[in-house]
Specification:
Number of domains: 1
Strand content: 15-25%
Order of helices and strands: HEEEEH
Shape: elongated
Strand order of the largest sheet: 1-2
Length: about 140
């Protein structure tokens, strides 16, 4: 694999991890969002799925977002009888967002982003050294 393909692959990894961090931020921001009324649904956690593709310009294997799906896990119930979205028993349906899981996913996405950035930096350094060797020779 040549250096430009490596850079294209790493750049695609950075793009999808950036998208992943955006979705995680939306999940965290809506972790306490409830429905407008007792019969409504609260915010449902979103998750990204990825797929492998080929960059037409470079022929490199890249990763891209396949879709943004809604997590089908159960909503949480919180007892709060005075809340406008409370049901007859006094429970409010809360989003299926677990902030601890979201923070763990955010850290993982951040590390993957940084790893791809390091690949691009290493490839850029290799290109610069190659050009220096060619100039000298």
């Amino acid at each position: 694999m040549d250096i430009t393909k490596s850079m294209a692959t790493a750049a695609s990894g950075m793009r999808v991890q950036s998208d992943r961090m955006r979705v995680i931020a939306e999940n965290v921001a809506n972790a306490s969002s409830t429905a407008a009324g007792a019969d409504g649904q609260p915010y449902r956690r979103q998750i990204l799925t990825f797929r492998e593709a080929v960059d037409e310009a470079t022929g490199a294997s890249v990763v891209e977002v396949a879709k943004v799906a809604r997590d089908s896990s159960d909503f949480r119930l919180q007892y709060n009888p005075g809340h406008p979205a409370a049901n007859e028993q006094g429970y409010v349906t809360m989003p299926n967002v677990n902030s601890l899981i979201e923070m763990t996913d955010m850290r993982e996405a951040q590390r993957a982003y940084e790893a791809n950035l390091n690949v691009i930096d290493a490839a850029r350094t290799m290109m610069a050294r190659t050009l220096d060797l060619l100039r000298r020779g």
